[in-house]
TrEMBL record:
The keyword Metal-binding applies. This is Xanthine dehydrogenase molybdenum binding subunit apoprotein. Residues 26-134 form the Aldehyde oxidase/xanthine dehydrogenase a/b hammerhead domain. Belongs to the xanthine dehydrogenase family. Its cofactor is Mo-molybdopterin; Mo-molybdopterin cytosine dinucleotide; FAD; [2Fe-2S] cluster.
Amino acid sequence: MAETPTTPYATVRRALKHDSGEKHVSGTAVYVDDVPEPEGTLHMAPGWCRGAARGRIVALDLDAVRAAPGVVAVLTAEDIPGDNDCSPSIGGDPILADGEIMFWGQVVFAVVARSRAEARRAARLARIKVEEDAPTISVDAALVEDATVLPDYQFRNGQPEAALDTSNRRLSGVMRIGGQEHFYLEGQISMAVPGEDGDMFVHCSTQHPSEVQHIVAKALDVIEAGVTIEVRRMGGAFGGKESQANQWAALAALGARVTGKACKLRLDRDDDMIMTGKRHDFRIDYSVGFETDGAIKAVDMAFAARCGCSADLSLGVVDRTMFHADSSYYYPDALITSRRMRTHTVSNTAFRGFGGPQGMLAAERLIDAIAITLGLDPLDVRKRNFYAQGADITPYGMRVEEFATQHAIVTELEQTCDYRARREEIRAFNAANHILKKGLALTPVKFGIAFTLPHLNQAGALVHLYQDGSVHLNHGGTEMGQGLNIKVAQVVAEEFAIALDKVKITATHTGKVPNTGPTAASSGSDLNAMAARRAAETIKERLVGFASDKYGVPIDKIVFRDGHVLIGNEPILLGQLAKAAISSRVQLSATGYYATPKITWNRQTATGRPFLYFAFGAACSEVIIDTMTGEMRVTRVDVLHDVGKSLNPAIDIGQIEGGFVQGMGWLTTEELVWDDRGRLTTHAPSTYKIPTASDVPEDFRVSLYNSLGNPEPTIYRSKAVGEPPVMLANSVFCAIVDAVASLRPGVIPPLDAPATPEAILAAVDAVKAARVP
């Protein structure tokens, strides 16, 4: 747990509330839709073809749209002066469709009107004639057609084919893992305000302001310096605003350019779910060779992802799936391959975990299958295959240096959650009950921290110290509710030894900190807090040098403490020293920059180090299922998670709890369904079921592992916490598998994710009907 501070000026490692927490619950937090609108602001709505998912546009009649009440302008691809593309990197994502429909919901035109209601009504008046082609919807169909958005990729370690052939036992199977809708509380929204000389200022709900700046500048055919993006906060994002905000910002800016007025574009919930990407769903074909004690000898895992109609971020997402196909387990010989399948559905995108959860769940399926086949406790099989001394190299060649941390976490949780006694209690319960069955699973997490594209591992910050001792802080990260700003502010306050209320955090702004990467990959604090710390250190060095010269005191005798600066034995308020320094023309403004070290991954050769370190954790979940209905409840969850030396335990525990429940939703209740015409049928909370308060585990116990600190020199030896907790929810899915498997020992339940009641009931029926091997 956190160290107890001895003074209010010691801010790091304190369990402090979110800096905007009171604003969130009181409704006073300002989001893009709350920013005061300039006089005459216009509103926009997207227009699309509601009858086709794939085909050539042969006629586009917008006369009725233009004639509708309140309409000021109607924009098509022809109105874009620059590049009609909002892709984050590879291309193929038109801002407005130009002659072709690639998925149901693709935007063909945009309406600009005096009010949002008028724009939305007018958008429905278009007449779009499409020469339809049959859409490819599923991964299986895309595999048959051999349709991909990017080349195939693989990791190979050792001689997997030979090792599989010589293993004592071998299992093969197929697993399907569904996607997930982000369901952020604040939908996609941008407001663009035109300025002088063609400049554009955009308020945008985005995780990647610099990329939005780049996309808007390209679309308008202006220099990037003429476009400014500001993000005060987002109402959730979860990866869904890493690249997906680009299109809506570009459309708002285009509307502002054409009309000369501020333009706001806010999607409603249905349109947001239809028009924006999801978590990738996968088909995994696997073979695993193992010995009679459960030790894995070789694996062959083939991942096929539904990427949608374009690449978007699928290169990195599916790579990370492959990086985490080992979960926490050593594969002596391995072949891990991936295919990125093209379908006529919205292009899938980043989602918390960025492909890692799918890879790890596939690994847990291997372990459960081995355990059920051999009649062993799944936890024993997991522990037998953990990385260890001499068995510490991943399939992609990186050494797992902290494997002992994983061992310690699992051992401690096994004891504190009373795993062995509860296993026996559940065995007795299941023997006595024919309808209700319980399941128990303890699963590990090992999640790599860093962007696997090395150039994204950098951040900047800007810090000003004022004459009253207060500090203005700006950094390149974005706040989406995760508590990044409070952590960075804690670090800066700690550096100056001032109270936290002396640090003013301001909106992320491309004119203050430029050329930033996205706030993603769980690296927000690692990157931005370090950059802010370096900026603060630069100012401190200047102050110390000034004080040393002015007072004739050695540098090593000048210390920042409790809101003061001790110059020898004489304390002076930080503000007083700052005022004196300013009078002597000492600069008290500084930028800070940080680039993550040791990242050497080369994708072309599949060599090098993709991660700075791993975050570890473990969860034990207990469930009860009704074998007559497929209904399920999570009755108890115990979590022990490694965050290094926590910067803020309250924030970290909140992230763990939230991540777990979000992962549980992905694996149990959240199901995306397309019909055979390519139309998403689950595009509202009436048909798409995220977890609610009643779904939270009845007994939910979360603890932070008592870490000695990150062995890597991260900010105050902390570890990232944003994404790893999602994968703790694998324990829920594995517990459901355990419950179903109790019906007929030795039979592997054919359960895919999400484990909805329908899926559980089908697995129950299949297990009952199966022949025992």
